[in-house]
Design a protein that fits this description.
This protein is of the alpha/beta class and 316 residues long. It has eleven helices and six strands. A hairpin with a 4-residue loop joins strand 1 and strand 2.
Length: 316
Amino acid sequence: MLATFRFLYPTAKRTLLISAPLAFVIFAAQLEGQTSPIWSEDKVLNYLPHMTRPEVEDLLTRTDMVIIPVASLEQHGLHLPIGTDYISGVERAKLIAQRTDALVAPILLPGQSPYHMEFAGTVTLPAELIQEVYVEATKSLIRHGFKRFLFLNAHGGNRAITTFIVDRVNQETEGIAVDLGSAAGPYMERSGQPQSNVFDRHGGVSETSRLMYLAPNLVNLDAAETATLSMPDHLQAMVPLVLAGDPAATTVFLAEGLKATETGKGTSAADMSSTGVWGERDLQESNVEYGEVETMRFVEGAVRFMERWKELRPMN
């Protein structure tokens, strides 16, 4: 049994019981004048939460562009963190902003994820509230002098919301907005990865590999289990067509698949998957090389689009 120690914090004027290892860390930090033992972030260029006001003002002399990830907090099976989509969006935005000047401004952690609510940890918000928060945040940045906004949707369930946010910014404000995923698409190199013939979507090999590259210490591949799926028969029958790239089948499949329990469709994540992963591919196929290649395809495509936009419309 671990020993415990009573630690008196003068500012709090209360006594806390803590374990011996933590007591040693705190004691050592106090002796050496160190700061929090759990802080681990390095300052990142152009990342708004890390910047001072003068740094923002300096950036405004070089660019009027802002990348805003549109994220979610939702279950990703047994092996990926709840914040997978948030981390994926923010980290890719940071990589882009190291290559071409733009402010990276994360605004909101959760998104629209009602179909994951049967799994602990998921946080979902109404579509109207999500878009209102992003539009109001954009207005704040416009007041400071930013003009162009690139919304990076990092969660499939936010696709329609992102489209609406972009349209509202363009229709209601002085700002100019685009969906970065759509804009970068034509500038991305063709993927050299072989097409899998196994269904692999939410929390699957592709998403796992990307997070292994972006945030490797948050992936627990040892805990991964191949999900047992139980889709309605008519959706199961469409899977081969979806894998083959049939556009009509894909559209119809996604219109019905992964929807909240309250809709009565029987297609929530818990209805269809034993683990929360919507895929049957062996997760042990995930690898950091695949994650790096696919991440950088997007980053480079986004940079090419942004550089072209800067050519077409220089800063005022």
